[in-house]
Amino acid sequence: MRPLTGFRILDLTRFLSGPYCTMVLAELGADVIKIEQPGSGDDSRRMAPKVNGESYPFAMPNRSKRSVAIDLKHDRGRELFLQLAAGADLVIENFRPGVTRRLGIDYDSMRKVRDDILYCSISGFGQTGPYRDRPGFDIMAQGIGGFLRMTGHPDGKPTKVGIAINDIAAGATAVYSILAAEMNRRQSGAGQYMDISLVDAGLAWTVWESGAYFGNGETPAQTGTRHRRSAPYQAYRTADGYVTIGANTDRLWLRLINDVLKRPDWADDPRFVDLPARMAHLDDLEREIEAITTTLPTDAWVDRLDVAGVPGGPVLTYEETLADPHVQERGMVVDIEHPIIGPMKTIAPPTRFSDLEFSVRSPAPWLGQHTASVLAELGVESDELERLFTDGTLYDAHPELQEGRTA
């Protein structure tokens, strides 16, 4: 049994932060009902590449869920949503502040149908503060959180982190916040409202940077692949690419210079004699190390580092990463069958529990795939369902694929 079996979520989120959160919860066992707008659905459904008309990027964070396409601006649609909420444990949304209140599906409205409900709001800047009404995506959060000024190479343009880090940070923050709220509810019986912003979630991850700033006023700058507090700790050029080296303690430093680089004289070099010296001479250190590492290919240096017990590794392309034998052996690439896309691959959940199931449960749904079945669970009669499909309150993108229904 999965740990969240029996926990029902109404998921009103779009794009990445909220869908990432609910994907994790779904694969821990929650019944995630993704509520989408008829006709268009989650905005990320428009993202290319598409296979047979279905977005492959959408399918990544929306697997293991059920899709109900229902028009919340329609009176009957909102009534049905409130009926679903009465049996739900969590409502999660990432609209701009104020939208859910206008729709009549905000936290106060939900408490009227279930007083102990959990409710999580994810937004760019949060529900309070002078920027609360600004629309905000990941790159805006990276910009205002300082990430664009601390990523990339010195004297380079502001650089975005390679992944949507603030989106994922907000999604991960929502996961642990929801689990904490549920633990509290099981003890106290009290519901909870959670206000999470992309900016706050990312800022909370600036651990070393905040320590340096609060400690001595140091503003984190662009450092390429260098570490802000340790050296050598970066990627170095090789004869055919790059190798990462993390010899950031005195013990590892001596192993590196004696057993890997074969430069034992550096132990007495005043530029490199200890960590403060190495940090003060980072350019010299990089130049001296790369004069050696560029003489051999990456694999040769990785072998030497492994034998010496010094942390290091290759700098791979994403394609090389997915094909790497270690990643494959860990089962991080999973094959699933989508009803429209067909055979497809996805990234597996990362935790290996000793005795809990945590895995991909099903492919992402097509838009409105479970509209009829979920509402039938509420007791809505088939005649009314057909009428609501006809008038546009409900939607199913592929009724021809449903057993017992025709297009």
Automatic annotation (TrEMBL):
- Which terms are listed as keywords in the entry? Transferase
Pfam families, alphabetically?
CoA_transf_3
Q: Name one GO molecular function term.
A: transferase activity
Listed InterPro entries: CoA-transferase_III_domain, CoA-Trfase_fam_III, CoA-Trfase_III_dom3_sf, CoA-Trfase_III_dom_1_sf
Q: List the PANTHER family hit by this protein, alphabetically.
A: SUCCINATE--HYDROXYMETHYLGLUTARATE COA-TRANSFERASE
According to UniProt, the name of this protein is CoA transferase
Q: Which organism is it from?
A: Mycobacterium deserti
